[in-house]
UniProtKB/TrEMBL annotation:
CMP/dCMP-type deaminase domain ranges (all copies): 14-105
InterPro entries, alphabetized: APOBEC/CMP_deaminase_Zn-bd (IPR016192), CMP_dCMP_dom (IPR002125), Cyt/Deoxycyt_deaminase (IPR050202), Cytidine_deaminase-like (IPR016193)
UniProt key word GTP-binding: no
Domain of life, source organism: Bacteria
Family recorded in the similarity comment: Belongs to the cytidine and deoxycytidylate deaminase family.
Keywords associated with the record: Hydrolase, Metal-binding, Zinc
Gene3D superfamilies assigned to the protein according to its UniProt record, in alphabetical order: Cytidine Deaminase, domain 2 (3.40.140.10)
Stated name of the protein: Cytidine deaminase
Length: 135
């Protein structure tokens, strides 16, 4: 499988954006696509609830990946469309960064797409991730 460009991944994530509001709940405002070390693609969308039981798009994509028996993420991206219709690439929140790391220690090398021409390894976005040394 040929390596997908950042533009390809962003377009794939954009394709699963499906915003919906129902009462106090919103879903699908953010979409994520990840590529595993085996080259498989998994997607997910966010679900926001007023009581905090929702989850991020990255969590949904990772859950689909784990359900399929994979744990190593090679690349990941998330996108959001503003009310004006402008598409934005959004970096994973701190909770998602830690979740990605905990799924597999090798995920510190996951490439996080930050824009059309920008990426960073998860380890760069999650500094000081090691457990502290004993004193």
């Amino acid at each position: 499988m040929a390596m997908l460009s950042n533009d390809d991944l962003i377009a794939s994530a954009q394709a699963v954006l499906n915003p919906r509001e129902s009462g106090d709940m919103a879903s699908g405002q953010v979409a994520s696509i990840l590529v595993t070390a085996r080259g498989e693609l998994y997607s997910g969308v966010c679900i926001d609830t007023p009581c905090g039981m929702g989850f991020c798009a990255e969590h949904a994509a990772i859950a689909a990946m784990v359900t399929a028996g994979e744990y190593r993420i090679a690349r990941i991206v998330a996108v959001w469309r503003s009310e004006e219709g402008v598409l934005h690439v959004v970096p994973p929140c701190g909770r998602c960064r830690e979740f990605i790391r905990q799924i597999d220690p090798a995920n510190l090398d996951t490439e996080v797409v930050l824009g059309r021409d920008r990426s960073a390894a998860l380890r760069e976005l999650l500094p000081h991730h090691e457990w502290p040394a004993a004193v």
